[in-house]
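Example S7 (structure tokens).
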């Protein structure tokens, strides 16, 4: 395959061409030539107004439903959604049926990803069946390709179990990913506890349930001197705890979701079940704190928390709707609306994410393997259901005006281009 990208601005702080407009020729999956003008014959030839290219983006936390929930998403449909959203690497949480808690299940997902344009990185469960009771076979899963470990949608409630897990993964420099949530606090909560939940008559879940878990887990990470990543951070106080931990040298990192940056609990006034989320949308003040933390570098990455649900799970009373939304296709456009600079986004999801989870860095220079995302940063568009390649359509962003379009990805000799 021979691909020519014409007049593209290179956005890669690790590249000698960062900030320059160049032609890029890709042959057999490698960047063979980068110059002001390239006249070689190629197919396809890609050019577009205000086109930019960066190293391929990484998503840290997505559910592709396979095995067991293929009626919500398949590996194939999830990979297409990721590619359409500009992601060349996706880390898959283990909350499938059966749970990914052994090496054979990790190997199954790795094999299924061979033919796809997106590289799949399974995350192994910390505990058997993600039940939080007994450690799973983490070493075997790591040897088979598990990139990190998490109980995914089931935050680890036992401090003793998490302590053992943090000690265990040190033997291979592994990382534990945790959604910080004490499930004994506000166990019946459907949204953030506050003025809005009172007005809507819905049971609330206080931010304290998250903040207590963040404080506890930071102490465990400090005690073990191990690596811990918080994802889905949603409260101002949690950010303060994380900042202090980082300042004292604890190996803590964190990510936030695009929907926590875009929405707040005030947006639930219409009982949109697509906004029933876990962690829940917090206050406007919390949302603004998250945006500021992204811009100042406290937040390491954006994680989509892509969680597909079929029609029946969302088209029902708010009380009975499932938690979660899809987010791969809309993520970049949401970041644009939230005022996050492109350079910050690229640093977070093309570079930081790779560093945190030992994914090979992609640098835009001659001789390097092509692992690229093509996009325009300032183009406004209306996100429609036709833009969604996921098998499920549970997105509150349908009909929203977003900023920043993804043209496609090139990943070695495989590529995907949006229509």
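Recovered sequence:
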């Amino acid at each position: 395959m021979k691909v020519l990208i014409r007049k593209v601005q290179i956005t890669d702080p690790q590249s000698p061409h960062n900030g320059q407009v160049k032609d890029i020729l890709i042959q057999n999956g490698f960047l063979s030539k980068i110059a002001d003008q390239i006249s070689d014959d190629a197919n396809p030839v890609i050019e577009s107004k205000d086109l930019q290219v960066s190293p391929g983006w990484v998503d840290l936390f997505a559910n592709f439903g396979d095995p067991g929930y293929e009626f919500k998403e398949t590996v194939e449909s999830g990979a297409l959604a990721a590619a359409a959203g500009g992601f060349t690497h996706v880390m898959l949480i283990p909350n499938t049926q059966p749970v990914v808690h052994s090496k054979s299940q990790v190997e199954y997902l790795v094999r299924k990803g061979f033919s796809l344009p997106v590289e799949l990185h399974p995350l192994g469960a910390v505990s058997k069946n993600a039940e939080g009771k007994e450690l799973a076979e983490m070493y075997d899963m790591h040897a088979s390709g598990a990139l990190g470990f998490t109980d995914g949608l089931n935050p680890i409630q036992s401090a003793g179990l998490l302590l053992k897990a943090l000690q265990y993964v040190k033997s291979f420099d592994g990382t534990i990913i945790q959604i910080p949530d004490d499930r004994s606090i506000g166990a019946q909560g459907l949204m953030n506890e506050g003025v809005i939940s009172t007005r809507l008559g819905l049971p609330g879940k206080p931010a304290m349930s998250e903040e207590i878990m963040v404080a506890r887990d930071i102490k465990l990470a400090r005690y073990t001197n191990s690596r811990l990543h918080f994802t889905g951070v949603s409260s101002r106080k949690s950010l303060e705890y994380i900042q202090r931990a980082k300042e004292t040298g604890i190996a803590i990192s964190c990510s936030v979701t695009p929907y926590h940056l875009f929405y707040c609990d005030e947006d639930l006034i219409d009982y949109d079940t697509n906004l029933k989320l876990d962690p829940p949308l917090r206050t406007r003040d919390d949302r603004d704190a998250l945006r500021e933390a992204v811009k100042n570098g406290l937040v390491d990455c954006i994680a989509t928390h892509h969680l597909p649900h079929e029609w029946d799970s969302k088209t029902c009373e708010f009380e009975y709707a499932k938690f979660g939304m899809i987010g791969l296709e809309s993520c970049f456009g949401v970041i644009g609306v939230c005022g996050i600079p492109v350079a910050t986004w690229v640093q977070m999801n093309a570079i930081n994410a790779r560093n945190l989870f030992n994914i090979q860095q992609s640098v835009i220079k001659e001789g390097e393997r092509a692992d690229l995302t093509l996009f325009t940063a300032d183009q406004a568009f209306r996100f429609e259901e036709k833009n969604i390649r996921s098998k499920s359509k549970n997105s509150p962003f349908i009909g929203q005006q977003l900023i920043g379009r993804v043209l496609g990805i090139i990943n070695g000799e495989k590529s995907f281009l949006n229509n």
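Notes on this example. Residues 208-224 form the longest helix (17 residues).
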